[in-house]
Give the backbone structure.
Amino acid sequence: MGAGHAHDLYRHADTPLHRLPPQCKLVAVLLFVLAVVATPRDRFWAFGVYALLLAAVAAVGRVPAGYVLRRVVVEIPFVVFAFALPFLASGPTVDVLGVDVSRDGLYGAWNILAKGTLGVVASILLAATTPLRDLLLGMERLRMPQLLVQIMQFMLRYSEVISGETGRMKVARESRGFQARDVRQLPVVAKSAGALFIRSYERGERVHLAMLSRGYTGTMPVVTDVRASAAQWGVSAALPAAAALACAVAWLAGA
């Protein structure tokens, strides 16, 4: 297993946020998202507080706003659904720019947009400040099932291998004059996909046999042990603690 596979979202920097152990950041993001989800949808000010908290985290981690905004597009399918909700939901209606839309649908659309966007931004900040390999080590420290961690480790390592194999097969096809112009070329593409599957399966068997010959017993050796001090846990607790306070005030204000 390679030790350091950086993903596209990671930004190399030396900041207090980058230096925090991955398990601390994972727990902080999880608790923050839970606080956001638990907030009543009609407490608009609370979502503004959450946005400010994420902006502060981005500033500490030196993650530019444009960098985050370019990657928020991943939630576009949810945005489309949210915009359609006021027209699809039933119940009392309100007039918006001369169009009658469902009041509950409007609240539902806001609920999806606000909470979904905050969760996506929190995840982007986590990925931008933590290498993927470290995230897996953090999951291992949090006692995530070993089998799941190993599956993700192999996905991380061998997705690059399969991508390289796909690229070489593409070059081989094109060097023989193949060009995918219309549906008539689909049989060739389908055969290539089948060949890629067989090659991947055979490679997986060879890798497994090689691991067994080197003493693999179901658990991977710990190459880097990521530990967190009490001070680091305390620093990482600042974000979820502030979010939990805002959530509690939002509930108490509506009581």
Remarks:
- The radius of gyration is 24 Å.
- Residues 146-175 form the longest helix (30 residues).
- Residues 16-138+228-253 form one domain.
- The chain has a mean pLDDT of 85.
